[in-house]
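Q: Hi! First time doing this. I have a protein sequence and I read that you can turn it into a structure. Is that right? Here it is:
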Amino acid sequence: MATPVMDAALELPSGSTSYYFRTKQDLIDAVVARITESSRAAFEQVTSGDPVEVTVSYLADLLTERADQLRARHALTIDPTVEPAARDRLARCLFSAEGATELLGEVRQGEGFVALCEGLIAVALMRGYDRALGYDVESLRAPVARYLDGPRGVARTETIW
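A: Yes, that's right. Below is the predicted 3D structure, encoded as structure tokens:
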């Protein structure tokens, strides 16, 4: 059951959360659905153009406009009280391994690209994605370009972490 603490944190009348979400699992399912829906909508807005720029725009959106969703997703993914099936859905709600495979033409390349993107957002979250700390869109571009261009490809930027 959702708690009065959650209602207070959301500045809602007592009992509001449990009215809409009868169990913790119902609430988690709604969170997963919302993050998945937001991810698809955000990605659809940036799908045309250079794959590096599309990816960087999507990652930057995650780390700025959707940072609360990103933090909630990470917290729930490592919460041992969350059911394994829900953790699995959370793990797949931001990126499409199938879409990456389609883009790159090989399953391992697609899965590796998703892993790179997951790692970039995890590191940015841990270090604090903030221009004052030196993290910005350029910090994301170099590793994405390097992966997509290959180790011997021409780097699109010299900025690295």
